[in-house]
Design brief:
It contains 17 helices and 14 strands. By secondary structure, the protein is α/β, with parallel strands linked by helices. The strands form three sheets. The chain has a six-stranded antiparallel sheet with strand order 2-1-4-5-6-7. A six-stranded mixed sheet has the order 8-11-12-3-13-14, with helices on both faces. Strands 9-10 form a two-stranded antiparallel ribbon.
Amino acid sequence: MYLKSLEVSGFKSFAKKAVLHFTAPITGIVGPNGSGKSNTAEAFRFVLGEQSIKSLRGKRGEDMIWNGGGEGASSAGRANRASAKLTFDNSRRMFSTIDFDEVTIERIVHRDNSNEYLLNGTQVRLKDIIELLASAHVGATGHHIISQGEADRILSASIRERREMIEDALGLKIYQWKKLESIRKLERTDENMKQVESLRREIAPHLRFLKKQVEKVEKAEEMRRDLISIYKVYFANEEQYVTVEKSRLHAEIAGPKKELTELEQALNKAREILSASKNKDVTSNELISLEKKLAETRTETDTVVRELGRIEGEINANKRAKEKEEGRMKQEEFKTVYLKDVEEVIRKAELFQTVKEVIDAFRHFIKGHRSANDSQFIAEMEKEIARLSLEKKDLDEKRVSLAEFEKKIIGEYNSLKQKIEHEKDTNRDAEKEVFRIIARQNEVRHIVSGLNAEIVRIEQIESEFKRELGEAGIIVGREATEYKKLEAGSQESGESQRHEQSERKHQIERLKIRLEDMGAGGGAEVMKEYKETEERDAFLAREILDLDKASVELKKLITDLDVRIDVEFKQGILKINKEFTNYFSLMFGGGHAELTVIREARRRKKGDAEELGDMLSGDSDSLTTNSELLTTDEGPEGLEVNVSLPRKKVKGLMMLSGGERALTSIALLFAISQVNPPPFIILDETDAALDEANSRKYGDMIENLSKASQLILITHNRETMSRAGVLYGVTMGADGASKLLSIQFEEAVKVAK
């Protein structure tokens, strides 16, 4: 036996705790009308999860609670809650999901209509209780709890309702529950899919924008890599060129400088000779004076030329800095701003009350996205270039003046030389030596001046090289300056190598300009945001695939469940019909009864479009009466009950008398119970309409039923009472509270013997 006991406390008329122990296959509950015996059947419904208060003969949840009795001293006061507890023997694992030999299910209702469900003392959800009971073929309503007046319900129900009752009896409720859950999951899956697709559509424009920005960043990165590659070759060759040229020029200039020193020493000796000569004349003094002026002029010219080289280098550097700043400021006009930043400032602007506040917000936004430097730097550069240009102009004028003065001195020097050549004097040899030395000095000085100019040029190239090196580190990073391991080109063909370097320089400048125009700044943030957005889009795409897969699986599961329900239902109908015929024949002494699967016919009026089509087609039948505009649809499957009484021409339920309907419904209910026996069956006065002869047949049938299911019988019928192993009497005192008395016939027989 699966059912062990029912305990009620404060439930309806049971003011105090009452316990019914089910120790026999058949337990009877008897008592006068109004004593509360039917409340025990309702206690079963209540604890098994019945949600319809109306079916429990109440209007509100608090109607289930004992509301107090009379004014006697022994009357129980008004209860604050009602509870019902069922205890099952689970030693044979009727509830396979619970690994306990005893399972208790308790439901408690409070005055505020709140409910509690307890499973072995632990609070659970109603859903958990229903799923557990469905697995054991038990429910709050159905074929195993038949209350007074409901025996005929299976006959008077519609064909669809009748099918649902039979499905419940056949244990298909668990599949219906799974199907319902699958349909709900499918609806949620479809809704989630729509939401995910909506999210993908929302981020798609931003993702496209970010993708373009990433392509721009990637292109800029590609150009940066190209620039680094060119930089390395350029720097390696430039450093080698500067090093080789400086070494060569310093080696070449060393000889002329040494010769100049030697010539200076020889010139000093010649001067001493002329100064010590007794025959010294005005010509010698003029020669010495001219030589001195020429030396001073050339020294000053060299200083001016070096200063001019320095100033020109500074002017060029300042011009490049100015051009770079102008390019940066021009780029500010086309600076890329993140869409989310614009959306944020617009969101803030919507909160402002005046136009001025909105304008100030956008001004602040623009100012915040402009670089800190402004045109002040350009103005300072222009001012510095102007100052250096004036200084250069003054030095150019001075250089020209010194050149003219040097030319004049050289003219005087040449005239004096010719004069000395024509004169024949002993001092003339020393003077000729002075002329020779000065002439050679001019030649050597010219060589040294040319080499110095080359050195200045190389120093400018070196300065430009170092400046470019620093700029490269800022623009493309330190990697561009790591060129030491790179092998430089050959220096044998100097002009060709310098031409290649010039081409590289032009490439570098072009790439720098393109990088600046593309505004490669913030590339890491763009890449990060794009990666995050792309990952989110990919995640949503996977979600859609998963949801679509889940949708397909749920549809397949629903289809499989429909097939299984249909197959098991029709197989069950065959078994029920066999038992139904047997019980029907037993009740009526012959005859035949069966359940037939049919489809409900539904009639509807043709739609306007269909009717219009018939009329246009010239179908004369379509222009007849309204009744002919009705069409028939096949509705869902249901069950029809067909009976054939012996010795009578009765073929339908409508022609049965009340007693015949009662016997037919009992035969059908017992047939259903035989096919898929529930753990217990509660019959609440289903035998009330039976006469004595039929009561004996009824008693024989319930004894047969008790072999497969425990029976709890609420009855007034003596024949039915005699079949019970335990009989509970329900009485009601003056206080209106129900009380239990029990008689165990098996124990009584033993005592009597």
